[in-house]
Amino acid sequence: MSEQEIREANKLIASFDDLIKSDPSDPKNESYYRSQGDWVYYTHLKYHFSWDWLKPVIDKCYKIPVPRHITFKPHGLFAQSITCDIDKAYKGVVDFIKWYNTQTSKP
After folding, report:
1. Which domain holds residue 50?
2. Count of domains for the chain
């Protein structure tokens, strides 16, 4: 993945992870995310290389009920994470969130 694709994927994951977006000191109010009590600039999101960041998202994906008739199952994502290949698990999370977002309507 390119740097830009990683940034966009990390922002997608941050949104799914319910991180609070924006910092009052940021004039655009769009570049920072609140994570573990600290404001993190979007280019410093660590989902793509830190299991500490990615694993809770994998757990959240796994808890989402997926109807039996759906061919996209999150379980494949977790099989990827068992291999200890964070790149595969990361891409699996991104694919799952993109699929999930097409299945849900947001208010």
Report:
1. 3-103
2. 1
